[in-house]
Amino acid sequence: MRATVMYGAGDVRIEHVPDASIDAPTDAVVRVTGAAICGSDLWPYGSKPADSAPQRMGHEFIGVVEDLGSAITTLQRGDLVISPFLWQDNTCDYCRRGLTSSCRHGGGYGHANDGGQGEAVRVPQAAGTLVKLNVAPDSSLMPSLLTLTDVFCTGHHAAVCGHVGNGSTVAVVGDGAVGLSAVLAARRLGAERIILIGRHTVRTDVGREFGATDVVTERGSEATALVRDLTGGNGVDAVLECVGHADALETAFGAVRDGGYVSRVGVPQYTEGPIGMDMIARNLTLTGGVAPARAYLEQLLPDVLDGTIEPGKVFDRTVDLAGVPAGYQAMADRQALKVAVTP
Amino acid sequence: MRATVMYGAGDVRIEHVPDASIDAPTDAVVRVTGAAICGSDLWPYGSKPADSAPQRMGHEFIGVVEDLGSAITTLQRGDLVISPFLWQDNTCDYCRRGLTSSCRHGGGYGHANDGGQGEAVRVPQAAGTLVKLNVAPDSSLMPSLLTLTDVFCTGHHAAVCGHVGNGSTVAVVGDGAVGLSAVLAARRLGAERIILIGRHTVRTDVGREFGATDVVTERGSEATALVRDLTGGNGVDAVLECVGHADALETAFGAVRDGGYVSRVGVPQYTEGPIGMDMIARNLTLTGGVAPARAYLEQLLPDVLDGTIEPGKVFDRTVDLAGVPAGYQAMADRQALKVAVTP
């Protein structure tokens, strides 16, 4: 089959790889009908050493069950299914408490495993991982459903960890697909004021459509000052940090009110951060992390199915497999916000 | 009047200072009947430059109202009152949401203001700050009541921020008075397993009396490994970090389970810390801060008054004002756990 392989920074290729197949009785093979390129794919696309081992790519996909291991009784061949970006048994103690991203038998797509940006994927722990979709494969809901694999669940996680609720004031750092998803998630959870910090008008326009009440195009201390101006000098109840750079974190700490939450879902491009006396004096909480998408998926699905939310508006380009390398470049160049892949 | 003044590291003196007096209509003057030396007083005692401005000391005290500003109607001369370690109006938006440590009109004792380790204290925002105690000044409850000024509220804050509740597994880093208070607070909130990390038998014995189910005397990675051994390899739901050193924080991150809380109440002796990918991958939350003691005081008071808890057991020495310098040295040398001051 054909699949996406990254060799190094800027070097993404579509290659023939061994067909996806059942290795364990708990596996399924899913033929991909829709996939996506993730903002996190851009980190290795920007920095992967050319002499490192090539890695398979993609962790956001929907598809049709093609083959099933003998232990799986809850799915059938031909089912249209969605996979969260990690696999999990959905039965262990971590899964039971909703932290599916720390599943005792969990793991991730890509690298040495099949990835979503390919024709088919071996899905370990398929019974715990895959959720059947009762829609047609060509449903117009497909882009929004695809966001439930990762990006919208990740934005939702930022908001949940930030204790966003009715009447909250929120700032979102970053106008990428995760940031915009965080805006939509915050609105869905009842936030009253949502300040989006981002500089790309095309994107912040989507942010306004998703519920941003204010847009701040400045960065750093100027952004912080503007957020404080907009909130009577106080700062916001929660900052959802959807970038991962150290300066975004600094902006977040500057924009949050005393006793508030800085909730991170960006992949941190730093190892140390400013957690000294200011954080203690102001009782700031630093939270967030890798989203337990499986735990959120079924909870968010109804709002997508009935059209209450349309998180799929973050997609602004669709490519076939051959177009994946160009899709990476378009996202890296910020010519595309988020690219869907139809193999 | 006489009061404690710190000139530099190791240089604490009892001096004559101007009498405490009413400066604003919202002030009170309280004649101190009981005070304490705080673990946080030991930081300047260890490091204050000799050429820095001398500072008044002490922020934990109980006393009798001696004088009242004209705006105060809720207190009377002669009332026995307790003060949390910060003053606050107890009416602003931060106070109303329980974050009295961020009061809009708040401040702290000592430095250029009167401190608790003296004969009397001018208390700003007295109506919002002071809580009347309906006990005799010589009550045997006095040591435990005194802990409500700071140390027990601080331990309680660590447990509250760490979401400690019924059935929680908890590790407490540090066997100082705050760490022991955190043990007691965690037990009071229903923790099932409380692992105290500390090396001083006299102190960990108090910890066991307060509810520690296990004591780990190792440090660093050995402590982390032992906490994991004691919790089936998982780590604890919450680590209450009651020291403030970078290595204590590292121990905390190592001992907490995925999705758990590292709750800090030690004064951080670092400006940067390890908040990179491990924290994100494991969904760890870093929380805690300066305790809003005023908000907790009335909530914790009944359990002290009826003897349900005896947090005053952290005191193991009492000095008069003249004995304060020796009290500092005894705490710095770890010959005393916590020193009470009876002026």
From TrEMBL, chains A, B:
UniProt cross-references to PROSITE patterns, sorted A to Z: ADH_ZINC
UniProt KW keywords: Metal-binding, Oxidoreductase, Zinc
Domain annotation Alcohol dehydrogenase-like C-terminal: ranges: 177-301
Database matches in PANTHER family: DEHYDROGENASE, ZINC-CONTAINING, PUTATIVE (AFU_ORTHOLOGUE AFUA_2G02810)-RELATED (PTHR42813:SF2), ZINC-TYPE ALCOHOL DEHYDROGENASE-LIKE (PTHR42813)
UniProt source species: Antricoccus suffuscus
InterPro entries in alphabetical order: ADH-like_C, ADH-like_N, ADH_Zn_CS, GroES-like_sf, NAD(P)-bd_dom_sf
Cofactors required: Zn(2+)
Family: Belongs to the zinc-containing alcohol dehydrogenase family.
One Pfam family named in its UniProt record: ADH_zinc_N
Protein name listed in UniProt: Threonine dehydrogenase-like Zn-dependent dehydrogenase
Domain Alcohol dehydrogenase-like N-terminal: 25-127
GO molecular function: oxidoreductase activity; zinc ion binding
